[in-house]
Specification:
Distance between the termini of chain A: 49 Å
Shape of chain A: globular
Structural class of chain B: alpha+beta
Number of helices of chain B: 7
Number of strands of chain B: 7
Largest sheet of chain B: 5 strands, mixed
Order of helices and strands of chain B: HHEEHEEEEHHHHE
Strand order of the largest sheet of chain A: 3-4-1-11-8-9-10
Largest sheet of chain A: 7 strands, mixed
Shape of chain B: globular
Largest interface: A-B, 86 and 77 residues
Oligomer: heterodimer
Strand content of chain A: 15-25%
Radius of gyration of chain A: 26 Å
Radius of gyration of chain B: 23 Å
Strand order of the largest sheet of chain B: 2-1-5-3-4
Distance between the termini of chain B: 46 Å
Amino acid sequence: MSETMQPLKTVGHPTPRIDALERVTGKATYTGDVKLPGMLYARVLRSPHPHASIRRIDVSKALALPGVKAVLTHENCAVVWGAGSVAGGIQYNDDVKKICKQRRHAFNNPVRFVGDPVAAVAAVDRHVAEHALQLIAVDYEELPFVLEPEDALKPGAVAIWPEGNLALDPRNETKPIVQKRGDVEEAFRGADHVFEDRYTTAFVHNAQMEPRACVAMWEGEKLTVYTPTGGIANCRHDMARDLGLADENVRVISHYMGGNFGNKNQNQDADLIAAVLAKQAGAPVKLEMSRKEDFIGMHGRWPTVQYYKVGVSNNGTLQAIQLRGYSGMGGYRKNSGSIGGIEVYRCPNIEMVVHPAYTNKTVSGNFRGPEFPQGYYGIQSMMDDVAFKLKMDPVEFILKNMTRKPSEQATYTNYSLDECIHRGAEAFEWKKRWRAQPGSDPGPIKRGAGVSFMAFRSGVGHSSAVLRVDSRGKYRVHVGVTDVGAGAKTTMGLIAAEALGVGLPEVEVVWGDTDTCPYSVGESGSRTTIMTGHAVIEAARDLKKQIAEKGLPKGSEIYTASADPNPRMEEGKARAAFGAHFVEVEVDTELGRARVIKYLAVHDCGRIMNPLTAISQIKGGAIMGIGMALHEDLVYDRRSGIPLTAGYYGARISTHLDAPDIEVLFIESDDGYGPWGAKSIGESGKVPAVAAVANAIFNASGRRMKDLPITRDKIVGAHA
Amino acid sequence: MRKSRSKGKLSRRGFLEATGVAAVAATAVPAIKAQSQVAEAASNVPRTTIRVTVNGKAQRVEVEDRWTLVELLRDHLGLTGTKIGCDRGECGACTVLLNGKPVYSCSNLAVWADGRSVQTVEGLAKGDELDPLQHAFIEHDAPQCGYCTSGQLMSAKALLNDNPRPTPDQVRAAMTGNICRCSNYNRYVEAVLAAAATQSAGGRKVIA
């Protein structure tokens, strides 16, 4: 803790969640638990082909089945899914939706991946709905398909969109994502050493425990949607825009949701399909996705191919970094498809050109640090290898080359990367665990250590909060959070209590319903604590002023304070969360098994609001990162374009037996922004994890693993 | 997604039709076929009356033979604390105790519970008195999103019933069929060990 950081009364102490009792007694109501009178059950028919045009759909038999109340196809439902179709990853932007040439509908023709929705049915129960799907006849004209982003951009590849397979940007232009500084070609010519390599990463799925679901109900022109969303306000606006309603005619409710991990701060096609079915059937509709549908029809981390070229001087100082990258977007561009990580190195010459390419795989969305875990894996493996080739300790290489300023002109609001690395290396006993000669342990079972580091966005921005107090001195904080699992309700309660100078039990938190909560930024991008937390403090300041002026309210009086701040960073300043991960692995080079035996995550996430939940976030992120490094993959059959591992077992999601103990060390700071200096946490635990595990495997085995996931067959193959 | 309803073996003709879609479709009159041609009404579905004790309460329920146990619990008995994460025996969110043994209720038919007792998360607390596991789960921040929590609790309950003082490795082994995508595995193990310690020291704790 820095000397300037004063301890607080309520914030900063380990506090069990205010809704923990509901979560351990089965009383927490998730979307699938909602049951409305007269509610119908819906199911979706999905394309079995990776690329096909639909010649004809015959739904007559399905409609004739007793109990079927509505059937939708592209022929009778032309709704454009704005949040799913907008080019360039710019969501929530009505103007972009208007001009966008490549529109994604709720039901598309042609279909562009196995799992693209073709029809939906609402019926009296789930079995009738399922049966009805089987009565729908579809005449497909199968089209050629392409699965890999590099192949998709080759001449002669089938065009998934008329404009070609390089995804359009928000201005409908086909351009790769480009960042340039200095002159890399010149720097390569002058560098003592130039290294080149290729790294690839797999499609990995959010795999949140609660499959996508929605319950939609109409009362006249007013639509109510129960849905697992991290952003009720953004979801509402998207639903209103896509269905041509006024925002105030849409109510979004999300009281509990079973995990987020990204791509849930907007409306989903499930929400639109349920809403249109409910309208057509004249009854509430519940649509629950199966686990398989959730894996193939929703979202996940975009797979990448990363070509690096690095110029370095004899003393290990970076001279130039070049990245040529390819990202697989699936059939629609739902997000940026960028590849992050170069920015954490101090280097005068960089050139990054990333091609987000359409493929006939499932659509990629944002997943916990959208472009970073895969980008960090690529660049930090590359740099670990450069350090090895220069015979440098990777910790020394990092200290020499890591970012110290966000840009030439700007500075960080606080900077603790040195401290993260030094304290981490000491606590982890880096010198003892790291092998100066990789793979040097005798025998087939070898140990080694790896390190990675991060400097990650922690910006401030717009959100809002409302605070009320009644004559009994009972406070209510209204915040548009849903609490995806990170503990936002409790965090907002703690912040309100601290700002008001009362105990947590005096504060009731109202959340998860657009009818009772103001706009909140939405639980994505590790922003809620910073932005909505800041709004809570502003509202508390106003409420305390009212109380100071008038005393507590009397009788049935209620004072209300609302805040809608949109703070900006001071000119020339940027905020970042910093961290370093240290991992020791044991690799059985004969069986190919890699096992994490020690893991230390050091993080400066600013001031910690609630150590209990913050530690859980970091532990969970790191274990997810280990899974991405070692197991997870949505494998496609190359000949048919069919996904083969769509489920927990097939995609090898980590279990209790895969999870090592994660030690977490926080270095706290207060830079004056956000609520008492809070910075981003939610994505922090995962972003550097994959790189650290991969580097540890190299150090243990002496083999650089360049393709994720680092499965047994690859380790055995590398030792063959 | 595909559910075969064909009776008996696939004929040569059926095989050719199934694999020759493109050729058939190219002819003048496309004869398109659905996966099923049988449009039967739901009322024909076989039903059975079973006797089942749920959370200590004996009941007689008429169930459709095709209902899974989790479907009976959630859709028809209103016990929505048990969650469906995958509906195919991979994730453990639907774990309940059937005659004291942990089972995936998505992978058991409701009729199989005939004559047996089922315990769900709703049956863990005795009135206002939380089970030591529930208390430890709260204190140790075991549930993050909470969706896998009921299943984790029931697997842990079965473990502690059999083995009141498990080692950390025994906890991991007993609960490895319960996936937590928030990956709060460390916390779950800590919490179960803490509950085991509390329980063997005697007694339950009251809800605050």
